[in-house]
Each structure stands twice: as structure tokens, then as C-alpha cells.
User: Fold this.
Amino acid sequence: MDSIVELRNVTKIFTNTQGIIKRKKRTVYALHDVNLSIGEKEILGLIGESGSGKTTLGLAVLKLLDLEGGEILFRGKDILNMKKKETFRFREKTEMIFQDPYGSLNPVQSVYKIISTPYKVFNKNAKERDVIERVIDTLEMVGLNPPEQYLAKYPNQLSGGQRQRVGIARAIITNPEFLVADEPVSMLDVSLRADVLNILLELREKLGSSMLFISHDIAVTQYVSDRIAVMHLGQIVEIAESTELVNNPLHPYTQTLISSIPIPDPERRWDTSEPKVLAGEYVNEGKDECSFANKCPFVMDKCRRSRPKMIEKGNKHYVACYLYE
Ligand SMILES: Nc1ncnc2c1ncn2[C@@H]1O[C@H](COP(=O)(O)OP(=O)(O)O)[C@@H](O)[C@H]1O
Ligand code: SF4
Ligand SMILES: [Mg+2]
Assistant:
């Protein structure tokens, strides 16, 4: 499979201050030596509990963060060393869909203004008539019908599901080749989620775009993704095709995540509550040990002495854990 995006040994470090009186500095490896590739037309799911580094990874691949180490390639080109013109083209080809349909739309802009702005940035000479046509086509694509009715509306006149569709329309009007969708349905009502997920799947069919689909919800991720990567404290610990990963999780952390999926019943299937069993104060401080060593029921001495490498266990199923070496 040809890859559109490739991360090589990517490290992102934040330095946070802790405590109100004693301002103690804490170093957080939000991404720690991450290797990952996303294929052409692939939807790659990225799961992990809150604070594992999913959003940081999404921002990094869109060139919205500086890195402390490693490189990110887009169609073979190092995105961090792109010249101005290349960066402009890269911005045209890549887009982000946000989690919060309420906070991510400018409340004083009309739907037409919100959706047409990115298109105009990259098509400076487009005639207004063509822009309107393009906006209407895009509204149709995201299921806002009849589209003309939405052009003059403002975000506060729309429901949560309609806003998220406007957010998607804004992201796809430039026909991006690669999208990052960061928890795109987790703030939506259960009844609207399947619709929005189906729009994302249709987009891949219509535009042939690749996508990084970020979520803490495994059922939702399995529904849309070809493969799933599991993140734990800044590291990818397991990757496999979606069904294989859910049916045969190898890493102890993935097993804990999967076992916290609610029992499949139609009402609870889309439950978004974050997996609480594992919530804790641990962060990755860059130590050379397995990031799961503090919580793992199978921990061994060597797990604290070095980090396990990612190895293939057949069936394109990769895992980083000493139990499998
Ligand atoms: N801008 C930032 N400044 C300081 N720390 C950050 C920043 N963004 C993220 N972090 C830290 O990096 C880690 C990963 O965060 P994030 O990528 O938001 O995780 P997720 O999206 O999986 O919930 C967390 O420990 C978080 O506190
Ligand atoms: S490497 Fe060791 S601590 Fe880490 S998940 Fe595997 S058994 Fe557990
Ligand atoms: Mg996040």
C-alpha cells in the first residue's frame, strides 16, 4: 500500500508547570518516537484514552506543531521543511474536522461565509457565481438539503448535527486529499452519529481522500476504519486491521480498552464515556520503559528496563509488548 502520510520517530514534548505554590516543571512526551503510516484512500483509526496524545498527533501531521524529533512525510516530502509555496499547497490538500460543532464555527459568520472562505483562499480568481455553486454542491454532499435554505443561516440557528455537517463541508470544499477528524461525533447526539459517520465514509468514496480518524470509542472507530492504531501515553502500542484488532487484541492495554466496550446493544453501542478504569495521573516522561508498565498485570523486570519494539505477529498485526517477543 502506498502511503500518503508517514511519521518517522516523531517526538513532541510539552513542558507543563504543576502546582499553584510550588511551580514544578513536568516534561510530558505527548508523542514518543512514533512511527506510523497512513495509506492512500485509507481510513486509519487512532484510539486511546484521554491524554494519550491523539490530538497532538493529529495536529502534528497537519503541520500545526513543531517537533522535538523525527520527521513527517506527506507524499514523500518532509512537511516541516517545506517552503512557503509548498506549505500553501499542503494546506490546500489537508484539512481538519473538529470535535466541537459549537465552538469550531464562527458565530457571526453565515454558513455561506464559513464554507466559502477556505475555497476562496485557494481559488483567488474564482467568480462569485462559481463559488456559490461550489458551496451548494458541498452542502448537498454533507446532506444539508435543500442547500439554498442554509446559505444565510448562522450557527446558532442550526442543530448540533447540522453544525457538524457545516464543519465537514468547510473541511471538504477544497477536495482535500488527507483529513484529520478529531473525535468528530463524540459531542453529537447518539441518534445523529451514524449519519455523520456515513457522510465521512461517502467522502472517501467520492473524493478518494485518506483520513486519520481519532476517537476514544472503539465501536465508532471500528465502524469507519480500515486499520486501527492504539495509542498509550504518546506511543503506538498496537496496529492491525480493524476487525482483527477488535477480535484479537494482543497488547494488554488494548485488551483493557476492548473489555470496556459496552455490551453490544443498539442503545448503548455508541456510548462515548471515556474508559475510566485506566484513568490516572501517569504521563510519559520519556523513560526507557514500557509506557504501560505501571498498570500492566503482566509486567516483568525487562518491561522497566527498555521499551518493547513493534513486531509483526502475522496477518499485518503489529504489537509492542515483551509478551510477544
Ligand atoms: N498545548 C499543550 N501544552 C501542554 N501540554 C499539552 C498541550 N497539548 C497537549 N498536552 C499534553 O500532552 C498529552 C497528550 O494530550 P492530547 O494530545 O490532547 O491527548 P488526547 O487527544 O489523546 O486526549 C497530555 O498529557 C496533555 O496534557
Ligand atoms: S511490555 Fe511488559 S509492561 Fe508492557 S504491556 Fe507488555 S508485558 Fe505489560
Ligand atoms: Mg484529544
Remarks:
- The first helix runs from residue 54 to 61.
- The longest strand covers residues 3-18.
- Residues 251-252, 290, 292-293, 296, 298-300, 303, 308, 321-323 surround iron/sulfur cluster (ligand 2) (CB under 6 Å).
